[in-house]
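The methods section describes the discrete structure representation at length, but only in general terms. What matters is that the chain and its backbone geometry are given together, residue for residue. For illustration, here is how one protein appears when written out as sequence plus structure tokens:
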Amino acid sequence: MNAIKIMEKLGTFTTSIDIIAVTDHKEKALYNRAKELGAKGYLLNTFSIDEFKKCILAVVNGGSYFSELLNESLNKTHDGTDYKRLNLLTAMELKILEMISNKKNTKHIAEELFISEKTIGNHRGNIVKKLGLLPSQNSLTLWTMEHKVMIGEI
């Protein structure tokens, strides 16, 4: 189970647990999702000992600490809606999205799922609409490459 899933499960309990996520993921959606779920800290695993000490001290003293490398720039560029949009997708659409992120084309996806290419095309169109993407041919592929880590969190 990854950190996001653990935090989602912990959120259902009434006890308060301070969580510091230590990760190599620089994906803005994961960073913001960790904050949404109440993470008190978020460090890249390339952190310095000084940064680790700052983070621990901040959390122990009731505050929070988010990686100096990510905090400001990521908060300006992402509003956290990507996870909400993913929740709109059906199980089949999520599976197709994952396969697209693994660089499988429509023909290969259809063969693997034992459905027609036309059905895959319909699913792709629905995914594009639900994610709020432009209906260009490459928009879905580009989106999955940019959000590959987040897709793996599903």
In short: The first helix runs from residue 3 to 10. The domain at 3-79 is CATH 3.40.50.2300 (Rossmann fold). The longest strand covers residues 20-23. The mean pLDDT is 81.
